[in-house]
Amino acid sequence: MMKKYLVASLVLFCFLSIFNMACSFNNTNKNAMDTASVTTKNFGTLEGKPVTEYTLTNAAGMQVGIINYGAILTKIITKDKTGALGDVITGYESIDGYVQKGNPYFGAIIGRYANRLAKGAYKVDGVAYTAAINNNGQSLHGGLKGFDKVLWEAVVLPGDSSIQLSYVSVDGEEGYPGNLKVQVVYTLTENNSIKIEYTATTDKTTVLNLTNHAYFNLTAGKSPNIYEHIVQLNANKYTPVDSNLIPTGELLDVKGTPMDFTTPKKVGQDLDKVAGGYDHNWVLNKADGLAEIASVYEPISGRYLTVATTEPGIQFYTGNFLTGTLTGTKKGIVYNKHYALTLETQHFPDSPNQPGFPSTLLKPGETYHQTTVYSFSTK
Ligand code: BGC
Q1: Ligand 1 closest atom vs CA 245
Q2: What pTM was estimated for this model as a whole?
Q3: Which CATH number do you get for residue 288?
Q4: What local confidence, expressed as pLDDT, does residue 143 receive?
Q5: Ligand 1 neighbour 344 (Cβ under 6 A)
């Protein structure tokens, strides 16, 4: 009897040891192959709730920071041509910087309506609405408390390379109809792309135009301006604006004008020929669906950024309103005029008031989809 027990225990022991070995082998293997990771950091508190910074890192060492306030991209750390890492977007050390008055939407998700609505006024199904006015008598980037100034619910998705952020904008918020459920998923891929996927649904017809407002300086702080950045935009036309930066409704040819970026051109080449600097929407040469439509090359660092989107337009803005007065900036950097540029993929500004522009209406039963991909490499 005793002998039987001994043999059984020995067999069980051997089985467990082999099982254990197999398991730890599997784990080691898994860790060696699956190197994407997410770490979290306390970024401060707001309205009594914690603000958390999620850092996604891929196997190549690229890092992307995202916070649950404004679904903001706080950092994009990529290699230059020598392999040195540097942060290529503007931002602040903590939440205090992001909530300061005059923060120009660094890295934020913009909604419900990216860019301007003339006098905030628009109609949906013949009913007049007024979006909150916050910019020279116009409504800019969603109004007084747009999607860039609210807390989102953040979840790390399986695989450790994506963060999902959700927000419910209630009926009437900032002058927009319908309860709108919005989701944004940021993914850092193994080939150094940041994919931003937006979805939204509503229970009343509303207008919707979402974008991300990251400001890029591909020198990672080595140059205080973007004059030497070489930009290319796949766009034969742009939407000219009036003195309030509201589109006139025309689509003008870029050919032979300072707006022509159809072949790569230094930002500084024609910048002073454009009153106030570049702050316009370009009409992308593309059909429906995801397509690569813009690139930026910075020769000193060798960094190369390409932009692909499903959207019909892009706001190329050269940081004309940066004044060097923002506090709590990363490493104390002074963000002066033209320090960085934005490439905001979007529907055209003021579309609800422009019958000739693609529609920005979202109806109950429909799902809004937008995808934009920022891809980094060197050359
Ligand atoms: C607008 C600028 C505005 C900036 C906010 C851009 O999208 O086109 O006019 O000043 O955002 O910082």
Answers
A1: 9
A2: 0.91
A3: 2.70.98.10
A4: 98
A5: yes
